[in-house]
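User: Hey, quick favor. My workstation is busy. Could you predict this chain's structure for me?
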Amino acid sequence: MKIMNGEVLQPFTMEIVPIKKLILFNFEKNPEAIYAGLELQYLVTENEGKGFRVIAYRNDKYVDVYDEESLCIKEVGKFEVCDKGLKHYRKVTFDRGCFQLTEEGIQVEFCFRDYKGRLIDVVAREHGKKPSRTFDLIAPIGVSSRNPVSFPAFAMYQFDLVRKKNTILKIQIDGKDILPDAFPVPIPKDGQMRHFTRYGYDCELVEFGKKQEVILQTYPCNNHEIHEQGLIATYQTVEDMKLMESLRFQSSKHIFILKFVDAFPDLLRMKNTEVNGRFKIEMDASMGYFSGKYKVTRQEEHVEITMIPTDGWIVQNKMFLTKVMLQKKSIFCTWPKTYCYKQNINLQTGQSSTNWARIDYKELTADWWKGK
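Assistant: No problem, here it is.
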């Protein structure tokens, strides 16, 4: 790879997935013949339409996915983030489709036929007399993925649990009524008992470091920044080195920024050595952040990058319920620690290979990070 003055090699990728709203109905304790849960999403894309998607969680740990006909998603994907992944995919007609938040609470309806022709009919209508405070939550969607293909940071702003009192909650499959799961912690929120049915009315899912093999390009670093593929990377110059400080989106509704507490090394100009440091992934202040460690090793023309969010998710919300749900040892806060990012780069050809693995973070030693 020919190195020009001022050029840099920015190795990371991140993308925003077009999920805007989400509500999840669990009935794992009372599963029907095929499904144990239904997740309604509302998607808005620039070129592939907007509409509803239902992810149906199967008893055999696969998922079926149903897209409204108005959606024209070119790459549906394998849904590796969902345990065993995708089983069936169908485009369907939604006889009813509603997902609104009013002064009385959440108002949701959807009705369609699954791949066996069975009618799935769901209604959730709150008629709340008291206010219900929403909070912000990182959904632990990555916890069930056996073979992750990215780090899925699913920020659910305006998150809440559906109230029990004065609420119509109906789940019906093939004419049979399904009992939704009760909230596992029998305590009230804002003085009101809750179902386990929960929603995020303002969602942003970011996939960091998608698994792929590509040829990386170098870019000129003007005024300590590069603007490429919807991202902005910032740098500081130390002697003749261009050290990376951060990576963010050029345009996004919410904050999502990869920050290097210890500036990331200049891959093109670093010597044959190993560099260790820390990073943070920051979001809106109310959401908190992820943090962890990175390691970069160069040997001649080969570079290996390892990143692990060793500190997990650091929660900022201090509501009583979140203190109960989101303790440091909870699955919400610890699942990111099991994600290990590996990227191998050939500096001569630009060939890059990115992969993820699930690990037991408790087995990591200080020696592995050289004491960092």
